[in-house]
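Below is how a single chain appears once it has passed through the pipeline. First comes the sequence as given, then the structure the pipeline wrote out for it. We keep one example in the README because the format questions we get most often are answered faster by looking than by reading.
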Amino acid sequence: MSQSVYLIQLSDLHLFASATGRLLGLATAESLAAILEAIQSPPPEVLLLTGDLAQEPCSQTYTNLARALQHLPCPVYWIPGNHDDPAAMTPALLQPPLRSDRHLFVGAWQGLLLSSQVTDQVHGELSETTLAWLDEQLGTSDRPAFIALHHPPFVTGAPWLDSSRLQNPEALFAVLDRHPHVKLVLFGHIHQPFRAERQGVTYLGCPSTCIQFLPQAPEFTLESIGPGFRQLWLEADGTFRTQIQRVDIPLTLDLAAAGY
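Resulting structure:
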C-alpha cells in the first residue's frame, strides 16, 4: 500500500466491425493500435476504458477489441458510452484481461464505475438505482476513491457538446458530498482534456483514441491533433498525479465535417 498505482484511461475508441473502418477519415483501429503500442513502456497496472468503445456497436466490433487487448499484462475495466450496445459488448468483453467489475480495489484506492448511458439518447443520466448503489458502496470503505462514467457532469464551453452532457449532475454531487474520501471523477465523451475542481474533488476529461474535438468551439469542429490518453499515478496517501500523452500518427481528417 506504500507505492503508487499506475493507471491509464482510454476513451472514445469508436471502433468498427472492420479493421478498415474510418470515422471522419481516421482509421480508428489503427489509431488505437498506435495508442496500445505507446502504453507498453512502461505498461499500466490498470487500464480503464470510459465508453464509446464502438462506433459500430455489434458483437464483431467488441470481439475485435477484446483481441486487441488480450496480451496486456494488466486488468482492463470498461463502461459503456452512448454509442455502445451493452447487449453486444458484455459477452465479448468478459475474457481476460477484460473485467466486468464495477467496484474495484487498486493499491490503496477504490474505483467505482458507473453507466451514464440512456437508451437511444446521446446525453447521459445516472439512474436512482445507480446513485443509490454508488452511495452504498462508498459507505463500505473509506479508501481514497475515484469514480468513472462516460458523460461529463460539467459544461465545457462548447454548446453543441454540452447539450449531451450528464443531465443530473447535482444528483451525483449530492452523493459525492457525503463521502469526502472521493478524490477523482474520470470521464470521456468530450474527446479533449478537461479539468475542474469542486468540493475537494477533481474532475478530469480524457482525449479520444481517435478524433479530437476543438475545445470551446460553438459548432462541431475537429481539432487537428493526434489521439491521446490520460496517465494517472494514484498515491497511497490519497493524492494523485496525472498528465495527457499524445501519439503522433498521420491525420486523414475530414475537417469540413459538421458531425458524425
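The mean pLDDT is 96.

See the next section for the split statistics.
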